[in-house]
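Why Calcineurin-like phosphoesterase domain-containing protein? Reviewers of the renewal asked for a concrete example.
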Amino acid sequence: MARVERSRTPRPDIPRSPLRRLLRTRLDGVRALPAAVRRGCRARRTPPTAVLVQPPHPWARALGLTAVTVLGAWLGLVLLGTFHAPVGPMDTSMALRPSLTGGTRINVSPLGDLELRSHDAPVRLDVDVDRLDPVRSQALVAHPERFAGLQDEVTRDVTRGALGLALQSCVAVASGATALGLAVYRRPRRALAAGGLALTLLGASATAAYATWNPKSVLEPKFSGLLSSAPSVVGNARSIVSEFNVYQKELARLVTNVTKLYDATSTLPAYQPDPTTLRVLHVSDIHLNPGSWRIIASLVKQYRINVIIDTGDTMDHGSAAENHFLDPASALGAPYVWVRGNHDSRTTQKYLTGRRNVTVLDNGKVTRIAGVRIAGIGDPQFTPDRSVVAAGDPAERTAGGRLADVLRTERLAGTPVDIALAHNPAAATETDGLVPLALAGHIHHRENTTLPRGTRLMVEGSTGGGGLRAVQNKKPAPVQASVLYLDRGTKRLQAWDEITLGGLGLSRAEVSRHLPRENQPGGTPAPPRPRHPSAPSAGPSSGVLPPPARSPSGSHG
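Here is what the prediction returned.
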């Protein structure tokens, strides 16, 4: 069948019915709808209008820049403005701080502050006396003729320190203001403007201070803290200015005594600890002598001390200004156990409570450190408070009775206490028969007795050599501490070493060994004590003690 060839010519229009034409028209309208909608939306769209932002007033911009500059300069001074400078035998830290009254504040820690109305400017000069450098002090002691030129040396050191502080402060305020300006404005030009304004303000403050400088302000100082009750430690300012030759001699004696104390510490002989014993360092009555911390740290290191026991009077007046003196107690190298003395206030006790590596005992509280159970009670009296009449030994015996009640309770519970602590020997005596060993202080000299019911009472001398005031004495008091050797199993006292430094001003160290009567040849051994239920089992002690560490001038007991 032949295939019909399709025609390539367009078909002629076929007449459509009215219905089809209507449908075709409606369909074309629907297809064109989106374009029409878009054209209508464009026609109805509101043309954008420009929003005008009112620029800040010039005064507001200036005020904001000033605020950023002042805050940045203050932060810079706090973070970067401290300048460390030696002044004579002392190491000091100098800094400028914003202030409405100006002036100079000298911090002599732990004694307190000395304030001078040296100038009127929006900055205050703060000077902190950090420490007495033993090397420079030793040079003064070795060459006493240098004291004659000490005034000129101090003047030169202060001048160099002031110049260094000025440069350090310029860098600090410029850096602080520029950094804060960059963080706030994010524009280098504004940040540099803040740094320049900070330098301008610092220069204006320095000019005001120079214009109002009052060198006579040293004649009318204002004491605060401990210095207000003991200005004799630093001397009268008017007498220092008018009679500097006399002050020179007092300063020479002060520097000599403190330096000799450091020398005496360094002469302590080496010691090899015995692993069969626990070693307890007993100190007492430091009385604000800063050199005592160095002595204690040296003994802890040389004797491998397991625990330090301080029977109080670490302070002198118990004021809050003295508290920072206690900061080294946390870093002596061994746990530090402390009871309050009659020169230690409740403020002192609160400051020490909770500090790292420090345990405060009071009201018969019991603690266990290095396997030794220790209980203690604080002194019931605070004698620096002259508004309260001292209650004397009756109050001490009452406090000791409260401690004795706790010891009885612990013994009945099967957890007897190894060592009882009190500051006053009158209180410690009340524990007789309840513990094998009681420790106390207070009387500034050693006493070692066996009480009627068998408790050994060991009273320590002054580890501070009589205290901070001892550095002014012509005849220095000895510095005393003791190392107690306890059996690891029974916690009984095996022996003790009495360590005596020849006082502030005498470079001599003496260590003597002592044995309890029951440990001496032919002595009767002490009866065994019931073991603590939680104590680890241990074999019998060998009874072998290390040889006493003695200096050539030591004695052997």
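Confidence is low (pLDDT under 50) at residues 226-244, 530-557. This is the kind of structural detail the renewal will allow us to pursue systematically.
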